[in-house]
Write a structure and sequence with these properties.
The protein has 344 residues and is of the alpha/beta class. The protein contains nine helices and 15 strands. The model has no long low-confidence stretch (mean pLDDT 95).
Length: 344
């Protein structure tokens, strides 16, 4: 099969490699669409040659391998791209994944749209409902208290806004002015322009100094500090998608808890991340896998009903176009949309 794999020199290219074979508890998927995430291009320089790149996918079951899935059934999910033992990667004609780690794509949803959902949606679910311990959509808040979604127009942020609204919260999101309409259409109750240097003070006004929960979908050192300033003077809890620590915050913010989370814990296995200091990582993570499997069962109804809308997307081409897509994202030319690749 063809796949976009890491090669010598810290880069990646399309090559011919053997088809993968599913082991017990796994299925083989024919990939129709794969979507791009920043983690895809960021991982390439740090992996040895021969790793398959890419996480998000949608396609059809090629070999159910004794599972409850049917051959030809439309499914979507994400894998830990560039990993080995087991070898995983979505930028390929075929991939192998756990049979419990995909969701059934409803007929009303295109495979292109479905390919943009899983990784970012899982990140938002994990951050808000496991790490921040917010009310879940199945048992929404009885009164709307505020949450801040910083980086609301990021792929993760767009799903976080929708999930927070389904959970009955008062959703404040940051985004550039041209994307305020998109954020309000997805459920944001208030949107502030992150380009305004005083935006944390604006958020504190909007939340009447009651904001105690925030999800930083950007998680640079300066953005997490700004989010912390927006929290209530009583303190609060910030969850980040990159490794951040409370010790990095400026003086005067000692009441703020800062926690980082990494979505790959949903696979349940202990995976060596080297020296990357993520919280909630170490040994096996069966609780995180079980939590994600619950939402995999819920997701088909969410997207079929329109409760969760897929990221806006732009189809760039096939496997050969991925290098171009990586360059576009590295140059900051991908905003409020997901790049997708048509594989089959």
């Amino acid at each position: 099969m063809k796949a976009f794999i890491t090669i010598e020199g810290g880069t990646a290219a399309v090559r011919e490699i053997p088809n993968p074979t599913p082991s017990e508890g796994e299925i083989l998927v024919r990939v129709h669409y794969a979507a791009q995430n920043p983690t895809d291009w960021k991982a390439v320089p740090h992996r040895p040659a021969g790793r398959i790149v890419g996480c998000d996918f949608a396609g059809t079951v090629a070999n159910p391998n004794g599972s409850s899935w049917r051959e030809g059934q439309r499914v979507a999910g994400f894998v830990y791209g560039t990993m080995d033992e087991p070898l995983r990667g979505a930028y390929a004609d075929y991939l192998v994944t756990g049979s419990s780690l995909v969701w059934a794509v409803p007929d009303s949803v295109s495979l292109r749209d479905a390919s943009t959902i899983s990784l970012a949606f899982a990140t938002a679910v994990q951050a808000m409902f496991q790490r921040l311990n917010l009310p879940e959509p199945s048992k929404p808040a009885t009164s709307a208290f505020p949450i801040l979604i910083n980086g609301g127009t990021s792929s993760v942020g767009l799903y976080a806004v929708q999930l927070a609204k389904l959970a009955g919260l008062y959703v404040i999101a940051t985004g550039s002015e041209q994307n305020h309409g998109l954020l309000t259409s997805l459920g944001a109750d208030a949107v502030v322009d992150y380009k305004d240097a005083a935006w944390p003070e604006r958020v504190r006004e909007l939340s009447h100094d009651e904001l105690q929960y925030a999800f930083d979908c950007v998680s640079e050192r300066e953005t997490t500090a700004a989010v912390a300033r927006a929290l209530s003077t009583k303190g609060g809890h910030v969850v980040c998608i990159l490794p951040r620590k409370a010790s990095e915050l400026p003086e005067g913010l000692s009441k703020v808890k800062v926690e980082s989370t990494i979505v790959y814990t949903v696979f349940g296995d202990a995976i060596d991340l080297g020296q990357v200091p993520f919280d909630n990582w170490g040994g096996p993570t069966p609780r995180d896998q079980k939590f994600w499997e619950k939402y995999l069962g819920i997701l088909p109804e969410y997207v079929a009903s329109g409760k969760i809308k897929a990221n806006p997307s732009r189809e760039l081409g096939g496997l050969e176009a991925i290098s171009e897509g990586f360059e576009l994202q590295q140059q900051g030319k991908v905003r409020a949309e997901k790049l997708v690749y048509k594989i089959a």
